Amino acid sequence: MAVKKDTSSEKNNEAKKGRSESWDKILSFLERGFAASKKGLKNAGSAISDFGDKSVLRIENSQIKGKIEKNFAKLGEYAYNLFSSKKSSSLTAKDQTVKAIIADIDALYLQELQNKKSIKAVDEKKSSKKKTESSKRTASENKVSKGRSEALKKVPQKKTASRKTAAVKKTASRKTSSKK
């Protein structure tokens, strides 16, 4: 009886060991899947953040363009009113109202330029991330392909040349030599 208990306990231990190995494999797959999901969500989050930043800057630029157009309309209206009332026949940049409108337009153009630079910086940051990721990917792919080529070198190659191939070559060389 004691022998049977030992064998049954050994079987139980082997079964437990087999189950634990299976669970270990399942857990490792789950952990890798979780890590890949985490990385994907992180990348998606940064992409959404970049898109949001660029969208805000583009909206600001469109608002700035609207303000610039309003200032040009103000300038035109001021000039029209001045000339139509016949109070003055000339208008210069030294006029206080004109100076103020031009200063506003210049400030808006400067702000628009800064927003465009910020958009470009976000694009460059995004492209530099892609370059570093692709270079990392390329390096790891090179390691894999190098490992594959090393493994292929170790595999014995089959000889593909046969007697038939050799006979065809001899026949072809005879045909070409007789034509000369």
Describe the structure.
The protein has helices at about 1-85, 95-155, 165-180. By secondary structure, the protein is mainly alpha-helical. Helix 1 (about 1-85) runs antiparallel to helix 2 (about 95-155). It is rod-shaped, with a radius of gyration of 39 Å. The mean pLDDT is about 75.
Key traits:
single chain, mainly alpha, 0% strand
Radius of gyration: 39 Å
- The secondary-structure element order is HHH
Span between termini = 94 Å
Structural class, by secondary structure, is: mainly alpha
Mean pLDDT comes to 77
Number of strands: 0
Q: Give the oligomer, counting copies of the same chain as homo and different chains as hetero.
A: single chain
Helix content: over 70%
> What overall form do the CA principal axes indicate?
rod-shaped
Largest beta sheet, briefly? none
Beta fraction: under 5%
Brief characterization of the structure:
The chain is built from 3 helices and no strands. The protein is an all-alpha fold and 180 residues long.
